[in-house]
Design brief:
Distance between the termini: 28 Å
Shape: globular
Strand order of the largest sheet: 1-2
Structural class: mainly alpha
Largest sheet: 2 strands, antiparallel
Number of strands: 2
Strand content: under 5%
Radius of gyration: 17 Å
Length: 151
């Protein structure tokens, strides 16, 4: 079982991840909820004064994962292994999966399998205490901005 209390056998829809009650992450989640409805995206993502950048990025990363998970959940019936046999970005680009640990050489997989591998990999990163500490008072060991940046 993951540190977020979610089992690993969910494949298409995964329950929403959340910070432990009373944690700094839960407090920051309340700030995010309050600013997202403002209509000002710049304000919604700005680091609140006095808050830790790593904490802020961690909470927003988990929120982004939850949003992508919900969006993908609406597409699963339209993209099956039969209808989407490869993960592509148009006719010129094909994605192959390799995580560098269990699958070292990139392999061709269906789009749903690629997303499954990707979501499992992201979830394993979110559950890794050395990257995203969950216990109150545990410090961030790594510099999170370089860990969560878009590649």
């Amino acid at each position: 079982m993951s540190l977020f209390g979610i089992g690993r056998n969910q494949r298409t829809f995964r329950p929403k991840k959340s910070a432990p009650s009373g944690s700094k992450g839960a407090q920051l989640r309340q700030i995010i909820d309050a600013t997202l409805g403002s209509g000002n995206l710049r304000e919604a993502v700005r680091l609140p004064p006095g808050e830790d950048l790593n904490e802020w990025l961690a909470v927003n990363t988990v929120d982004f994962f939850n949003q992508v998970n919900l969006l993908y959940g609406t597409l699963t019936e339209f993209c099956t292994a039969e209808s989407c046999p490869t993960m592509t970005a148009g006719p010129k680009y094909e994605y192959r999966w390799a995580d560098g640990v269990q699958i070292k050489k990139p392999i061709e997989v269906s789009a749903p399998k690629y997303v499954e591998y990707l979501m499992d990999w992201i979830e394993s990163q979110l559950d890794d205490e050395s990257i995203f500490p969950q216990k109150i008072g545990n410090p961030f060991i790594c510099y999170l901005p370089t860990t969560v940046e878009l590649q």
